[in-house]
Amino acid sequence: MSLHEVLNMPVSFEAFYYSSEAWEKRKLEIEAEVKQSNALIKMGNEIIKAISSLGGKRK
Fold first, then answer.
1. CA 49, CA 19: separation in Å to the nearest integer?
2. What was the pLDDT predicted at 58?
3. What number of other Cβ atoms are within 10 A of residue 26's Cβ?
4. Nearest CA to 42 among 54, 50, 31?
5. What are phi and psi for residue 16, nearest 5 degrees?
6. Environment class of residue 11 by beta-carbon count within 10 Å: exposed (0-12), middle (13-18) or buried (19+)?
7. Cα(35)–Cα(14) distance, integer angstroms
8. What angle do CA 37, 17, 31 make, to 5 degrees?
């Protein structure tokens, strides 16, 4: 790589990283983490609904 090519490259590593395969892998990992968190939140909400419905029937 020539000095001219190096000087024309972006100073930030960000542009290189976001166009790489490593970012694609990380993006998939982030999406999986979000899906897992959402599933846990949904299960928690269902538990809260079930407990609330049990409490309402006692009265």
1. 44
2. 56
3. 13
4. 50
5. -65, -45
6. exposed
7. 26
8. 15
Amino acid at 21: E
CA-CA distances (angstroms) from residue 1 to 4, 12, 24, 32, 41?
8, 18, 26, 38, 50
Place of tokens 């899906």: 35
CA 23 to chain centre: 12
Q: Which residue has the tokens 């972006």?
A: 10
Give 2-52 pLDDT, tens digit per residue.
Answer: 899 888 887 888 888 899 999 999 999 999 999 999 999 999 999 999 999
